[in-house]
Amino acid sequence: MAAEMALVKPISISKFNLTRTPTTTTKFSTTTTAMSATTTTTTTGPIRAKAAKKGIKESLLTPRFYTTDFDEMEMLFNTEINKKLNQEEFEALLQEFKTDYNQTHFVRNKEFKEAADQMQGPLRQIFVEFLERSCTAEFSGFLLYKELGRRLKKTNPVVAEIFSLMSRDEARHAGFLNKGLSDFNLALDLGFLTKARKYTFFKPKFIFYATYLSEKIGYWRYITIYRHLKANPEYQCYPIFKYFENWCQDENRHGDFFSALMKAQPQFLNDWKAKLWARFFCLSVYVTMYLNDCQRTAFYEGIGLNTKEFDMHVIIETNRTTARIFPAVPDVENPEFKRKLDRMVEINQKLIAVGDSEDIGLVKNLKRIPLIAALASELLAAYTMPPIESGSVDFAEFEPQLVY
Ligand SMILES: [Fe+2]
Ligand SMILES: [Fe+2]
Asked: Which cofactor does this sequence's record say it needs (predicted)?
């Protein structure tokens, strides 16, 4: 998992820890417990420095952790119950995951620390935030996939093993980002994060929509940044981006696996409710990213990107990819869609300004009411725009094929 999706989730106010550490090696050691996978970080350096804990302000748009109805998941992947499960396709996918293309990809070098040391002032701060948020999003995928791998072992060992191998990938991604934080003398306390953060519950159907989108949008974000920096090396200020080309292939494979999972559950894709939910999840993911990134333009400008252009490119490409499997998607290429996103950014900026003002809590809340109403109305207007009817060509197996 690589991207964030927050608009459909409740606000939680728990905080996570950033621990200042003088050592630069952070390792993943994982232990699974009853309901959720637990991961701890351990330093291999002599002694971890006294914790200088730093809370991070959480908001509606902060990356979250997910949990689901694992009993229902077991039912869905029981080959006795669901005859539509294409075990051959899953076997083929499993072989691909076992190949482990990126086994030796995530190896650091001394360029990292040197680049981090050169980064000073606001850019340094922005980079740290980028690493934290990315690490949290990757780690969130690790926890969910790890648990799914554990829970599905008996009913469908092939699907279970794929989930476990995907959790391997996400652990690698999160670990690599956390090592990046060590270049800035920081480390996310992932063990604390696992226990302290709230988990958002999604039914399996919604987990499929959300994780599929999260993987595909993550792919498009990483590959777009990679290609941009390859073409404009003068903006290559931290070596982590050089790893994005192979890294994003992991996210692409994860997304393809969810695509296969959804095809095995056509009831999640082929009725009017599925169309409404598919559009809702797309909109939620796109708006979340756009609002998030527009609050962090300094980061994108720091690597030579225009934030809004970058986001629109990612949204359009993700939407085109998603249209191959989702039964309906928003018409993001209609210029009105972007105009609505931009209006949401303006309203969100006003909401942030209210939060930062000196007013007392009651006054702040009163000022927020019309802004939240305006945001909700923009969202509703975007949701009710005429969508694009879409869907997998594989579903047309009983229909006459078009011949050109
Ligand atoms: Fe990932
Ligand atoms: Fe992923």
From this structure: Fe cation
Q: How many CB atoms lie within 10 A of CB 308?
A: 17
Task: Give me ligand 2 centre to Cα 215, in Å.
Answer: 5
Distance from the alpha carbon of residue 23 to the mean position of ligand 2, in angstroms:
28
CA distance 94 to 261: 13
- Asked whether the predicted pLDDT for residue 48 surpasses 60, the reply is no
Interval 338-372: pLDDT, tens: 999 999 999 999 999 999 999 888 999 999 999 99
Contact indicator for 371, 364 with CB cutoff of 8 Å: no
pLDDT of residue 122: 86
Ligand 1 centroid distance, CA of 170 (Å):
4
Rounded distance from Cα 32 to ligand 1 centre (Å): 19
Kindly identify the ligand whose nearest atom is closest to the C-alpha of 171.
1
Per-residue DSSP letter, 85: -
In whole angstroms, how far apart are CA 211 and each of 27, 259, 285, 319, 358?
Answer: 26, 10, 10, 14, 39
Q: Ligand 1: distance of its center to the CA of 249 in Å? A: 9
Residue 373 CA to ligand 1 center (angstroms) comes to 35
Phi, psi (rounded to 5 degrees) for 166: -70, -35
134 CA from centroid of ligand 1 (Å): 9
Please, which pLDDT band fits residue 62 given cuts at 50, 70 and 90?
low
Q: What pLDDT is stored for residue 2 in this prediction?
A: 56
Distance 348 CA to ligand 1 centre (A): 28
Q: H or E element: which one contains 39?
A: strand 37-43
Model pTM score: 0.84
3-state class of 350 per DSSP?
A: helix
**What sign for the dihedral angle of Cα 219, 332, 65, 306?**
positive
Residue 80 has pLDDT above 70, yes or no: yes
- Return the CA Rg of the chain: 21
